[in-house]
Write a structure and sequence with these properties.
mainly alpha
Length: 420
């Protein structure tokens, strides 16, 4: 048997499965054909889920091994981007309406925080996986107890040895014919959550592309639209959003499967799991490859960002102007009323005439504000409106992001070249 481990006649196995309508028994017969002297004992005491479920657990574990370094690389690329732009002011948005300023790096840290949660969740889900081990047809190990003539210690030792050979530290002590299908829920839940994170990040990038503040990579000969040559559609981010939606809804499969597992097991889980487990990991894999490609080529346009700030900042600066006037000896309420009137006039120019925000010009032309005319430039410096954002970026990257990446340091340099 050992000398024929790699000697698999897949053609014969396929023919056997067509005849027997049973995948595992097809391979048992094929293996027996290669090892006729062992034919009488192959699969003795076992059940199909001994083969299938244990294999699935190995595949889940190894699938996480593939995804985790990819996710770590995305986090690393975005961490570098956040650090580079930690103090670059940009308009913040709430309700997709201009709000107080933040920085490009700080906004990126919002993305990073979610991705770091996903990394920890994937690590936890992988760590908590156990092996089904040698449990028999209904999980009682009765057939193996019979093989070992009632010796419970030998049954437990066989279970331990097989688990160890498969690279697991623990088994599920209690199973039916299958391991609990809630294990599949836990594994796919963290991937589904990752899908939600990626969808949010790539939606933000798409919105910023519309504002012309940020773009994903766009190649020299790339065509954005077959009809409109000028377009630079965020195709990669759209692809991530599209696939992320699929990844999120795949969680419904294991949820429903676990809910309808009758007693020790029923077979209506099998076909469903062959689809949803594989598709979840494959979908997460290509999403992370695409997102790495995006994060390695993000482009920002500081002049556009600056223009947008310039349009909105005068309104945001009114409180600073009022405080400066009060310091200069003016009455707060009088100042508030003067600025309110000028602000309404400036807003009318913007909304009704399509002009630029001229509030600052109006303040400069108003003799009432002459005590602070010399301070206006300093009062309108965008960096004074971002609060602790630059410091938050530095602290967050040092304390929470970089330590998570240490384990993946040897795999950080791999680049991604996307094929269509």
């Amino acid at each position: 048997m050992e000398s024929n481990l790699e000697n698999i006649d897949f053609k014969m196995a396929a023919e056997e499965e067509r005849k027997l309508r049973h995948d595992v028994m097809a391979h048992v017969h094929t293996f027996a054909h290669c090892c006729p002297n062992a034919a009488a004992i192959i699969h003795l005491g076992a059940t199909s889920c001994y083969v299938g479920d244990n294999t699935d657990l190995i595949v889940l574990r190894d699938g996480f091994d593939i995804l985790l370094p990819k996710l770590a690389r995305v986090i690393s690329r975005l961490a570098d981007f956040a650090q580079k732009h930690a103090d670059l002011p940009t308009l913040g948005f709430t309700h997709y309406q201009p709000a107080q300023l933040t920085t490009v790096g700080k906004r990126c840290c919002l993305w990073l925080q979610d991705l770091c949660m996903d990394l920890r969740n994937l690590e936890r889900a992988q760590k908590e996986l156990r092996f089904r081990g040698v449990k028999g047809t209904t999980g009682t190990q009765a057939s193996f107890l019979q093989l070992f003539e009632g010796d419970h210690s030998k049954v437990e030792e066989l279970d331990r040895l097989v688990t160890e050979m498969a690279g697991f530290k623990q088994t599920y002590l209690v199973t039916g014919q299958t391991y609990s299908r809630k294990v599949d829920i836990d594994s796919l839940a963290v991937l589904s959550s990752l899908g939600a994170t990626v969808h949010k990040i790539c939606t933000d990038i798409r919105l910023l592309a519309n504002l012309k503040e940020m773009e994903e990579p766009f190649e020299k000969d790339q065509i954005g639209s077959s009809a409109m040559p000028y377009k630079r559609n965020p195709m990669r981010s759209e692809r991530c959003c599209s696939l992320a939606r699929h990844l999120m809804v795949l969680l419904m499969d294991p949820l429903q499967t676990a809910a309808v597992q009758w007693f020790e097991r029923t077979l209506d889980d099998s076909a469903n799991r062959r689809i949803c487990l594989a598709e979840s990991f494959l979908t997460a894999d290509i999403i992370l490859s695409t997102l790495q490609n995006i994060t390695e080529g993000l482009v920002i346009y500081p002049k556009v960002i600056e223009r947008h700030i310039r349009h909105e900042l005068p309104f945001m600066a009114t409180e600073n102007i009022i405080m400066a006037m009060v310091k200069a000896g003016e009455n707060r309420q009088d100042c508030h009323e003067r600025i309110r009137v000028l602000s309404q006039q400036a807003a009318a120019v913007v909304k009704q005439e399509g002009g630029d925000n001229d509030l600052i010009s109006r303040i400069q032309d108003d003799a009432y504000f002459s005590p602070i005319h010399g301070q206006l430039e300093a009062l309108l410096n965008p960096i004074s409106f971002v609060g602790c954002a630059p410091q938050q970026v530095t602290r967050f990257l040092v304390q929470e992001v970089r330590p998570l990446l240490v384990h993946y340091a040897s795999q950080m340099e791999l680049k991604v070249e996307l094929e269509l």
